[in-house]
Amino acid sequence: MTCFRLLASWVAMAAAAMMLTACGGSSMFPSPSVAPPAASAPTIRPEEIVGKWGYGAYYNEKDRARTQTAAAAECTRPVVITRGPNGGVMMPVVNQAQAELTIKGGPGGKNFLGPPGEAGGDKDSEIISFDGRILVTRTVASDEVGHATSVYVRCGPKA
User: Fold this and answer.
1) pLDDT for 27
2) Distance (Å, whole) CA 85 – CA 124
3) CB within 8 A of 51, min separation 6: which ones?
4) Which of 12, 20, 37, 112 is the 20 to 30 A CA-CA neighbour of 101?
5) 14 Cβ contact partners less than 8 Å away, ≥ 6 residues apart
6) How many CB atoms lie within 10 A of CB 136?
7) What's the pLDDT tens digit per position in 19-69?
8) Domain ranges of the chain
9) Cβ atoms within 10 A of the Cβ of 147, count?
10) In angstroms, rounded to a whole number, what is the distance separating the alpha carbons of residues 65 and 67?
11) Rounded CA separation 81/64 (Å)
12) Are the CB atoms for 52 and 150 separated by under 8 Å?
């Protein structure tokens, strides 16, 4: 009878150890790797944002309406967005020198502006909204103040 109890105790301890291992996330069988969401094609084409724009930027969402009004007033000295030599766009971006930017599609149908490479990188800005007349972007990386949001208001008819 003692042998039976010893065997039963050992089986119970082994079962408990297996359950604890399962709770800890470790397993005898490797779990399938989960791939990150696939990037999609951008839904905005470079030619859609080529033209003259009034520009403004803000950090606090409560400043959005005021900044948009101020950006529209900047059409007396507009920012000009042109096609870049490599198919992207040449435009100013907050906290960065002007350079050719690529419009990139990201996970979930998001669009990003930034240097060539994977969408959503530290030097990218996410396109928050674009209706043909107003373009709103937000930096992916924050600086010492936070995420900068840029507002571009189209000056005159679409180019």
Assistant:
1) 47
2) 19
3) 80, 81, 154, 155, 158, 159
4) 37
5) none
6) 19
7) 444 555 444 445 555 555 566 899 999 999 999 999 999 999 999 999 999
8) 46-154
9) 14
10) 5
11) 22
12) no
Give the whole-angstrom CA distance, residue 97 versus residue 38: 29
Instruction: Tell me: pLDDT of 15 over 60.
Output: no
- CA neighbor of 138 nearest in space, from 43, 24, 147: 147
Which tokens hold the place of 149?
A: 């949001």
State the virtual CA torsion across 80, 85, 87, 89 in degrees, nearest 10. Answer: -20
Between 35 and 129, residue with greater pLDDT: 129
Instruction: Supply 100's token pair.
Output: 């050719």
Which phi and psi (to 5°) does residue 104 adopt? -120, 140
Average pLDDT, the chain: 81
Residue position matching structure tokens 């951008």: 42
Inter-CA distances, 154 with 59, 130, 143, 158, Å: 21, 11, 27, 7
* pLDDT higher than 70, residue 70: yes
113, amino acid identity: L
- Residue 5 makes CB contacts below 8 A (sequence gap 6+) with none
CATH topology of domain 46-154: Lipocalin (2.40.128)
Q: Give per-residue pLDDT as tens, 105-119.
A: 999 999 999 999 999
Residue 5 reports pLDDT greater than 80: no
